[in-house]
Amino acid sequence: MNAGYNFASGPSGLPAAVVERARTELFARADDGSTAFEQPFTGEAFGATLAHARARLKDLLAVPDNYHILFLAGGATQQFSMVPLNLLGDASHVAYADSGHWSQRAIREAGRYAAVTIAARYEGERPLAAPPLSPWCLPDDCAYCHITPNETADGIAYPALPDCGAVPLVADVTSCLLTAPLEVARFGLLYAAAQKNLGIAGMTVVIVRDDLLRRPAPLVPSSCDYRAQAAQGSRANTPPTIAIALAGMMFDWIAQQDGLAGMQARLQRKAALLYDAIDASGGFFRAPVAPGHRSPVNVRFELARPELTTPFLDYAAQRGLHHLHGHSAFGGLRASLYNAMPEEGVHALVTCMADFMRRYG
Ligand code: PMP
Hints:
Strands 2-10-9-8-5-3-4 form a 7-stranded mixed sheet, with helices on both faces. A 3-stranded antiparallel sheet has the order 11-12-14, with helices on one face. With 361 residues, the chain is α/β, with parallel strands linked by helices. The chain has 9 helices and 14 strands. The mean pLDDT is 96. This is Phosphoserine aminotransferase. Belongs to the class-V pyridoxal-phosphate-dependent aminotransferase family. SerC subfamily.
């Protein structure tokens, strides 16, 4: 039976092959009688799982040797604090581009620890867009500049990366990591919570250049000290072992599907199919974000008649198309097309939209 398609923004669907592999491997008993859930984090078995996940991710993203890959407990929101606490050093300023909901949340949190300069923001009306790529306002005494390349809630993606000169670029790539190739060397630090494209909730990947591993602020909890976690291979305390095992399985699955080039090609086809259907609907459905700035991963759209939103969500759910509601801050509709979403899911969605339009248009 087809259980339907999960368009949730996160946690979201996993590839069926990964769920199946997890079902058999995680519950299998090793020679000592333990399942993956029961293995000590300092032991050989989990050590191999961790090393595998790290090596696979390094390979997929071609992470240069002067970067550390950390698998840390907690979500991306935790990194909103950990980034300034670990990277501020002797500087007093940090710069953030305001591109929407999640960058604003990061800005609010950073403001608790440092003076925040807004490097850029889009001031226009609809259609919505990412901040202009220049000029950016970066103060002299600036530890880093933070961007959110893909705004999960707003459905906005930067068309290109800004040039921040010598100021290290830090990016919250929670909703876009591993959906396309990424030049890691352009960044000082990247972080992504796992529950969208890398597996399950409870773990965040941090990729940090080694020269940025400074002495953290005195009050940083020791489990959140990047330097200590890097020195101890993410095992300064108990890491989220099962989330790391799942991430390793996701990385294997991505590698089998032609890696990040394969993910990107598939994502572009899925996003084009859906945005084309929205644009061709004669205004019945509409996308609030300008072409060129539309997220391929989180497709935000709405009905010209907002009173049809709930009927549409019900109609879609009856056809097995689930979790299409927009972010609570914006309402409307949103289809998240993470790596696990098969192309058939998007075909089913555009067919559903056309049928709904025939009925209510
Ligand atoms: N940043 C972005 C871009 C996100 O999409 C999310 C979650 N939707 C977060 C941060 C927050 O992540 P978490 O819930 O894991 O703290």
